[in-house]
Amino acid sequence: MTEIPRMISLEEAQELVLSHTTRIPAETVPLIEASGRVAAEDITSDMDVSPFAHAAMDGFAVRLADFPSNEADLPVELDVIAEVPAGATYEGSIEAGQCVRIMTGAALPADADAVVKYEIVENVTGDGKTGSRVRFASVPAARANIREAGEEAKEGEVIVRAGEIINPAGIGFLAGCGALEASVYRRPRIAVIPIGSELVEPSEKPGPGHIRNSNGYAMAACAHAAGAACDMLPIVPDDEDALAQAVKEACKTYDFVVTTGGASNGDFDFIKPVVERLGTLYMTTVNMRPGKAQTFGIVDGTPVFGLPGNPAAAYMGFSLIIRPALRAMQGYSALEHPHVQARITRGKKKKDPRRIFERATIARNEDGVLEVTPAKNQSSGLFGVIQRSNCIAVIPEGLDPVNEGDLVECILLDVPEEAIV
């Protein structure tokens, strides 16, 4: 008789799954598709950015030689000899007593060494355009309001390093540096297999003894939110051979297989014997509530994770154990949502020694102190409570009660892993 794996802590479960998942190979994608993904290799610029010095704002390009060293000799009046819009250049010289009107982004004339913004220059004659005379009341700083050539990047310089997340601003940066595509880690392909003879598709109205397949949809959404490419496979009835066939076939195509339902010890719960029969079973229970029944193993080299059928239990298992693994597979270094301490607004007596994860809402009170309020209904069969929660309040292992006002750990499930809080 095969020995059933012991119940392990959440931390052991996370480490176990991470130790049996590997980083996905890289792929080259069009630049827009790289947003939010992890660069698999260094990306360099094909030129200096910007390739020329240009005006940082609308104003007048001037020579500092025309300004006195003693401010008592101000103001200075200069003649406007030309205008340079963005996309144009002025190739002529700027002589003593002259300046050039210039627009944001336009190339700086060779003789100019500062730009004075338009709003602080007074028109003496004309409207400030060519042929006008303008007055300056202060001495500009050298290279004021000028963006220098190569200020953002030099030709050949690494502008995004391997392991860096490419954000939307990074997409613009790369585009400006001539990158039309990027090498990023491929999104893992995930199969979600709903298990249960009682399940029907959401398009059907359930008859007696049946429920809609809500878990499958929620877990597929969780996979997408974790950056994975997910397919939800057909519902599998409570039949061991049918489930074994579905899992074995999925392991041929996908990088990670997730099942929902059938993870407990009932007469019709088959994911544990199926994983043991097809491969190696590493985990069956985790010291957490909801979500004690969490199955994990390897089948034909593919990680297979069996989530419970109760919505909250499945959601906790995915969020706390599967999601970190999926992020690691994509090259992310931050794997867990931020944790903060908050004062709990309602005490709790413990009858279960497991670590309890309560769906909750966290906010700052009028004094700016973080407070967390667990939802009144903590039934593991409800999705709506999770929808209306923004964090998980963690009640430690053991039977010690938690009193109102105690500091408890909170997991911010709606805050990105990279956030610093």
TrEMBL record:
- UniProt cross-references to SUPFAM superfamilies, sorted A to Z: MoeA C-terminal domain-like, MoeA N-terminal region -like, Molybdenum cofactor biosynthesis proteins
Q: According to its UniProt record, which reaction does this protein catalyse?
A: adenylyl-molybdopterin + molybdate = Mo-molybdopterin + AMP + H(+)
Q: State its cofactor.
A: Mg(2+)
TM regions (residue ranges) = none
Q: Which family does it belong to?
A: Belongs to the MoeA family.
What this chain does, per the entry, is described as: Catalyzes the insertion of molybdate into adenylated molybdopterin with the concomitant release of AMP.
Q: Name one GO cellular component term.
A: cytosol
Q: Name one GO molecular function term.
A: molybdopterin molybdotransferase activity
- Give the matching NCBIfam families: Glp_gephyrin (NF045515), molyb_syn (TIGR00177)
Q: Key word Transferase present in the record?
A: yes
Pathway(s) where this gene product acts: Cofactor biosynthesis; molybdopterin biosynthesis
Q: Identify the residues that the record assigns to the MoaB/Mog domain, covering every copy.
A: 191-328
Keyword Metal-binding included in the entry's annotation: yes
**Name the UniProt record assigns to this protein:** Molybdopterin molybdenumtransferase
Keywords noted in UniProt: Magnesium, Metal-binding, Molybdenum, Molybdenum cofactor biosynthesis, Transferase
Question: CDD domains of this UniProt entry?
Answer: MoeA
Instruction: Tell me which EC number(s) this protein carries.
Output: 2.10.1.1
A GO BP term here is: Mo-molybdopterin cofactor biosynthetic process
